[in-house]
């Protein structure tokens, strides 16, 4: 038997099954949290990732009051899903997306939170098994842009850490848009920039945000930004001073699996699917070989989230300034 408080009363629940857990969690969330957005429902879909169909979860959070078609921000979580649970009580997001939901809906955006790990039960240290989350974002862009509720000309993409890297993966020359309309803008936060698609000229602007003391060295993202700019892409890298990867106060080194071993010579992913180091050294590789490179066990601790609200604000300002009128 399990007791919970619901609508001011102590309710006894006898061995709730999977279905009722979802109902209770959704009702609890709706009742106790006063929000600036309309709570939706968690939905599930699948897309190709690493050669197979992979299930993922997502939820759309919309402003309480809407007028016309909504601009949409799709957000991809990092390695740690340390934010709120979604309405089903099982899918999760991270702290960055959590705060983006609150701030973004207040500014009139619909926020799409994706749980890329939903069907895989992955832990942060299992980075070599992570799915290609950018494929889930592209799938939802195509799906949601067909609905009258959302403005197909105003779809934005952001993400933190692993999600920031996945955001940059959509800059690959092989990416195609079903409706022919690309992203309106990208804002990857804390990406590693140690593996990048061959830079090309892109029809949308990019804002990259890093912490000064990120254990994924800032100079790797400076290189990626420079290479994109040289191709004619509008790109800006903003470095937040005195904070680490989590936009938090650094608290010393700790051991963590991280793809941060190639900051000065990143891997380049080419349109034919092969990889090679930036300086041309070594042999051309396929993904199965390249996916194991550039990993270390070096990280920096500290998760007080000192500047994460600032980062969310900068992302939203950037997207707002790039809205189609």
Strand share of the residues? 25-35%
User: Main sheet, how many strands, which sense, barrel?
Assistant: 9 strands, mixed
Approximate helicity band: 10-25%
Give me the Rg, rounded. Answer: 20 Å
Query: What's the total count of β strands?
Result: 16
Q: Going by CATH, what is the homologous superfamily of the largest domain?
A: Alpha/Beta hydrolase fold, catalytic domain
What CATH architecture label of the largest domain applies?
Answer: 3-Layer(aba) Sandwich
CATH fold description of the largest domain: Rossmann fold
- When the domains are counted, the total is 2
- Distance separating the two termini: 55 Å
Report mean pLDDT, rounded to a whole number.
Answer: 88
The assigned structural class equals alpha/beta
Low-confidence stretches: 1-35
- Cα shape: globular
> What's the SSE pattern?
EEHEEEEHEHEHEEEHEEEEHEH
């Amino acid at each position: 038997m399990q007791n919970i408080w619901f609508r001011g009363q102590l309710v006894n629940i006898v061995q709730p099954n999977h279905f009722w857990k979802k109902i209770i969690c959704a009702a609890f969330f709706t009742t106790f949290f006063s929000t600036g957005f309309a709570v939706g429902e968690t939905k599930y879909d699948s897309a190709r990732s690493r050669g197979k169909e992979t299930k993922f979860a997502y939820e759309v959070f919309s402003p309480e009051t809407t007028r016309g078609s909504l601009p949409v921000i799709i957000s991809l979580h990092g390695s740690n899903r340390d934010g709120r649970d979604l309405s089903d009580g099982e899918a999760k997001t991270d702290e960055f997306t959590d705060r983006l939901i609150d701030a973004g809906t207040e500014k009139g955006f619909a926020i799409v939170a994706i749980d890329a790990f939903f069907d895989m039960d992955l832990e942060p240290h299992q980075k070599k098994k992570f799915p290609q989350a950018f494929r889930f974002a592209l799938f939802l862009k195509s799906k949601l842009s067909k609905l009258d509720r959302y403005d197909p000309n105003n779809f934005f993409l952001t993400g933190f850490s692993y999600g920031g890297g996945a955001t940059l993966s959509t800059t690959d020359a092989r990416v195609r848009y079903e409706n022919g309309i690309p992203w309106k803008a990208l804002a990857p936060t804390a990406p590693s920039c140690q593996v990048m698609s061959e830079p090309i000229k892109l029809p949308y602007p990019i804002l990259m945000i890093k912490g000064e003391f990120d254990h994924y060295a800032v100079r790797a993202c400076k290189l990626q930004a420079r290479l994109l700019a040289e191709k004619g892409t509008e790109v800006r890298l903003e470095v937040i001073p005195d904070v680490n990867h989590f936009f938090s106060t650094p608290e010393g080194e700790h051991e963590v699996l991280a793809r941060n071993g190639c900051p000065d010579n990143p891997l380049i992913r080419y349109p034919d699917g092969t990889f090679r180091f930036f300086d041309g050294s070594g042999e051309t590789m396929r993904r199965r070989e390249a996916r194991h490179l550039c990993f270390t066990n070096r990280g920096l601790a500290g998760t007080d989230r000192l500047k994460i609200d600032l980062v969310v604000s900068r992302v939203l300002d950037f997207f707002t300034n790039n809205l189609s009128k």
